[in-house]
Amino acid sequence: MTAQNFQILNAEKHQQLGVITTYSPQLGDSVMYSPTFPMEFRDVQSCYPIFFTKDAQTGQFYPVALFGFEPEQNLFLKDDAWQATYIPLSVSRQPFLIARPPPAAPGDPEPSAMVSIDMDHPKLSSVSGERLFDERGGQTQFLKTAIEKLENLHQGLAHGSQFVAALLAHNLIESFTLEITFIDGAQCKLDTFYTIAEEVLYKLPGDTLASLNKQGYLQAIFMQLASFSQLRALIARRNAGRPTADV
Fold first, then answer.
1. Which of 141, 222, 230, 231 is 20 to 30 A from 43, alpha carbon to alpha carbon?
2. Strands (E) located in 110-184
């Protein structure tokens, strides 16, 4: 996203804008995965596999919820809806984001984070969707909920960075390779994701486990491991959407 694509949310400037709340490829929802964070793992693992990936530019690890097996494949999209009981905050908060304007002058303190909106996002509309402001310029309940999501996401991602740092400090992130053959004969190889190193985890001394638990990380570790079982459901979604090879 470039600086030309988003604007600080303003009641006067954006009063006529609405946000379309359905989900479809045309609305930018065809994503293979999206970022998540430990405080969201309980909800995410009930629907999706959770893995780690690396930022291509920084090389930093971050957790993601997996929606498909190839780029721009989201197996949860159907009939303008998202077919799952929970949608990760990094998806449902669209098209809003947190912006932090640069200091007015060198040495000045950083300005407070502000709510901004991606003006190029396909869910923005001036003729339909959930309105952001009422006739008096007040925030609608929809916008208030969106801002609450942003705040939770902002805090969660910060906590997630600390979580990943703790995992790396104890060598608890490892790569894995998974090869899948679908019922239509197509094959998939997942080899760019990472997971918790179970063998290392189970060899950690008790005081280290206690420290991870005290920081709120141990539950998230086991939630990530438990989410592996969601791969079977994701494969079933992929198989249900394609014919068998001999049809």
1. 141
2. 114-118, 124-125, 130-131, 173-175, 178-181
Nearest to 5 by CA among 114, 100, 123, 119: 119
- 3-state secondary structure labels for all residues of 10-35: CHHHHCCCEECCCCCHHHCCCCCEEE
CA 113/CA 144 separation, integer angstroms: 16
Phi, psi of 175 (to 5 degrees): -80, 160
Task: Report the run of H or E that residue 240 belongs to, with start and end.
Answer: helix 230-240
**Average pLDDT of each block of 10 consecutive residues along the chain (247 residues)?**
72 92 96 97 97 92 97 94 96 89 66 84 93 92 94 92 96 96 93 96 96 94 96 95 46
Task: Say what the pTM is.
Answer: 0.89
Backbone angles phi, psi at 235, to 5 degrees: -65, -40
Give the long-range contacts of residues 169-176, CB within 8 A, separation 24 or more.
170/200, 170/204, 170/208, 170/212, 171/197, 171/200, 172/196, 172/197, 172/200, 172/201, 172/221, 173/52, 173/61, 173/197, 174/200
Q: What span, in angstroms and rounded, lies between the C-alpha atoms of 209 and 212?
A: 5
Cβ–Cβ under 8 Å, residues 115 and 139:
no
Q: Is the bond preceding residue 35 a cis peptide, omega within 30 degrees?
A: no
Tell me if 74 sits within 8 A of 26, measured CB to CB. Answer: no
Strand segments, DSSP code E, in 95-199 are 96-99, 114-118, 124-125, 130-131, 173-175, 178-181, 187-190, 194-196
In 3D, which of 13, 40, 247 has the Cα closest to residue 126? 13
The count of residues in the chain is 247
